[in-house]
Amino acid sequence: NCPESNKLLFHFHIFSKDGVFLQEIQGSLKQVQKLLSSHEASYMQSLRNLKKKINLLLSSAARQNTKAINSTCPKLESLINGRKLGKSHSIGHEVHFLCDPGYELVGSESRVCQESLTWSGQQPTCRDINECASSPCLNGGTCVDEVNQFSCVCAKGWAGVTCQTAAASTLPAATTGPYVRPSRCTIVQGTTHCTCEPGYTISGRDSYTCTDIDECELFHNGQAGRLCLHACVNTPGGYRCSCPAGYNVTRDGRSCKDIDECATRQNNCTKDQMCINTYGGFQCVRVDCPKIPNATYVKTSPMRCERNPCPVDNKACSQAPNSFSYHYLAVVSNLSAPRVMFRVSALRPIGDTLRFSLLGGRPVRRHFTVQRSDRLTGELMLASPVQGPATLEAEVEMSELERRVQLGKYITKVTMFVSQYEF
Ligand SMILES: *[C@@H]1O[C@H](CO)[C@@H](O)[C@H](O)[C@H]1NC(C)=O
Ligand SMILES: *[C@@H]1O[C@H](CO)[C@@H](O)[C@H](O)[C@H]1NC(C)=O
Ligand SMILES: *[C@@H]1O[C@H](CO)[C@@H](O)[C@H](O)[C@H]1NC(C)=O
Ligand SMILES: *[C@@H]1O[C@H](CO)[C@@H](O)[C@H](O)[C@H]1NC(C)=O
Ligand SMILES: *[C@@H]1O[C@H](CO)[C@@H](O)[C@H](O)[C@H]1NC(C)=O
């Protein structure tokens, strides 16, 4: 079945045609045949060897391959209250573990990534060192272990960091409770260091008691301003600001912001009333047109009344104001003065003169004045600060004249709701 040997046989066949060396040729052929079978055997052997080698190579390559993908040990958990040193997780590398001060290591101090892709040893943990182990609290005191320190809860009649001294019989009444806390003390080489939580301070006489700092008292009218716009409430370890009803504490926790009851439906004004938001509250108002003999008024807008046309020759009617407008102002208490509170203007004057005046008696004149700011405008001025809570009303009359004859007059009623507070 070997094509090479067929060629050889054919070659010899040509020779045999001569018939002379037949016997010789037969011997030669037998030898060649032998040679060929031995060649064939060795050829097959080397083929088998080659196959084996290739298989070996293949399987070793496969092994190399898996190793390359997964030649690191699994990630190690990080250490709570400690640190892991060494980032490499590949075979042969070592990782070390250290605990924070106040903790001791339990488990393997270091771990090696092994050929099996597992870590040697055990995952360590950091255990709080028991500072109480040496029984540092004397005279029946109970030791409380804390991170890197301890504190003693002394038996009755004893005091001090390690309950080493007999307590004075006249301790302040409040030695416990939210405003008094035990201090945290550490003994380092025989020296005691005591500290307090934020908002507490070591009280004068003993270093083992922390008392609350009254921030409201301490920073009352301080240089940086008051802590709170309204009221300061001291709390254990801190303080908070509070606001009167009708206000919310602002985001920064120090100021007060008026709640708009009219916008938030927190008012009980009826349908025919208008809700006026004031500082710290609200007012329900209702505009009723005035009753004046011989003149009738109709509401032309929620805050305006206009006179109906007058019968001819009815002097009482034609001398009554042409209109009443109503305005409501909400202001804070003790508003600085003088200042303009309201302006009244004539839009389309028909006469040659406009006159502005303040109506009402003494109570009104104590707080208000009216002045002209330009030809068409009058101003209602607040003359002096008003302390709230108060409600003030002022009426400004604007008269229109032509050659000293009155053509019409217009009343503006301003109601000012002064809050109780200056905010
Ligand atoms: C190979 O790594 C994966 C994660 O990368 C892991 O889940 C798996 O156990 C590892 N296999 C071996 C044999 O280590
Ligand atoms: C004001 O505070 C009250 C609770 O005191 C709260 O219900 C309300 O939503 C607050 N209003 C605003 C505008 O923050
Ligand atoms: C509206 O509520 C106030 C309290 O917020 C109360 O004093 C007043 O009587 C109430 N008025 C009516 C009409 O219900
Ligand atoms: C008021 O009206 C009545 C009747 O309409 C009239 O008799 C009277 O004179 C009027 N008063 C004045 C002051 O004009
Ligand atoms: C009113 O404000 C002034 C400063 O603007 C202040 O000096 C005065 O004490 C305040 N009055 C009251 C009653 O708060």
TrEMBL record:
Main location: secreted
Disulfide bonds: C99-C126, C154-C163
SUPFAM superfamilies hit by this protein: Complement control module/SCR domain (SSF57535), EGF/Laminin (SSF57196)
Annotated keywords: Calcium, Cell adhesion, Disulfide bond, EGF-like domain, Extracellular matrix, Glycoprotein, Repeat, Secreted, Signal, Sushi
UniProt-listed GO biological process terms: cell adhesion
Domain Sushi: from-to ranges: 71-128
Transmembrane segments: none
Residue stretches making up the EGF-like domain: 128-164
UniProt-annotated location(s): Secreted, Extracellular space, Extracellular matrix
MF terms in GO: calcium ion binding
One Pfam family cited in the UniProt record for this chain: EGF
Cross-referenced InterPro entries: cEGF, EGF, EGF-like_Ca-bd_dom, EGF-type_Asp/Asn_hydroxyl_site, EGF_Ca-bd_CS, Fibulin_C, Nephronectin_domain, Sushi/SCR/CCP_sf
Similarity comment: Belongs to the fibulin family.
PANTHER family in alphabetical order: FIBRILLIN-1, PA14 DOMAIN-CONTAINING PROTEIN
Protein name: Fibulin 7
Gene: LOC116335789
